[in-house]
């Protein structure tokens, strides 16, 4: 384990690891809890000299990074009155989809992951996306509102369709490519594309991503994938290890945690990733130092979910044996699902901290975690 004083120092270390000279394609995965700084890390690694604003970056022949993160997701905004998902007409990713005629690929990838009759309709004249249910009978619907998870899948399908195009083009000799915009690409960074998505779809996404990266035949582009989701992480790690054993790539996996504003970067070996023990340690440290923040509620929820799955409970809430648990469950849901920015206040009231500490300690005692 190596300690760093800032996320900028972590970014430098990760970039150095990606830039290690190898004759094979380089793949690196990183597991990090929410609020550790994954999005900031991906943004630091994807910064270019052209602009500090992710929305203003032009994908031209001088670009070295293709990045999926929360900044890309923010290019899409819902018009809730009309059930329209609008997108930024000036964003490079939208223009690229239009120029490369990727609409059908996006629809196919979306339907493959969701395994549903929902079909996105991309309109580049109005810069909007609508959704229909195409069932071929009286159950067909037009202009429906999709779930948050389906929205995440749609945005990922857009990026993934571009990724497939990038890999296809890079496998050609430069003179044979249909475009020059990927010629200087050096890094493909994917930060946590599984927000609000259920496990079945996450498995499909992971498998498709692995297949796409496996098709890349070169070694000039390095891949970095970060996530907070243990299932997604473990599928990637186990698959890339097998690919590495077949001598098709150079692969490393790491975990990133933060303790009292110190970042800890650890390489993950062949042993199972016991992240539940790390969660317990992080929460204990926060309680001991009276530094409980909102993201600790999310960590605790992860621990409750893993415990309930291990014990074959129907619901993770069954692991909370406190008499008046509804208020705490409300706080867990609030702080686990809200999209908190790093600039938003992370401070908690004294009563919320006391409630957290009481129920966490009760959980540890009841389930013999000591």
Overview of the structural elements:
This protein is of the alpha/beta class and 370 residues long. The protein has 2 domains: 2-267, Rossmann fold; 275-366, no CATH class. It has 12 helices and 11 strands. α1 crosses α2 and α6 runs parallel beside α7. Mean pLDDT is 82; it is low at 48-62 and 337-345.
Going by helix content, strand content and strand pairing, the class is alpha/beta
| Global mean pLDDT | 82
Count of helical regions: 12
Shape: globular
- Kindly, what is the distance between the CA atoms of the first and last residues, rounded to a whole number of angstroms? 24 Å
Rg result: 22 Å
The CATH architecture of the largest domain comes to 3-Layer(aba) Sandwich
* Tally of structural domains: 2
* Beta strands, count: 11
Report a brief summary of the structure.
With 370 residues, the chain is α/β, with parallel strands linked by helices. It is 44% helix and 17% strand.
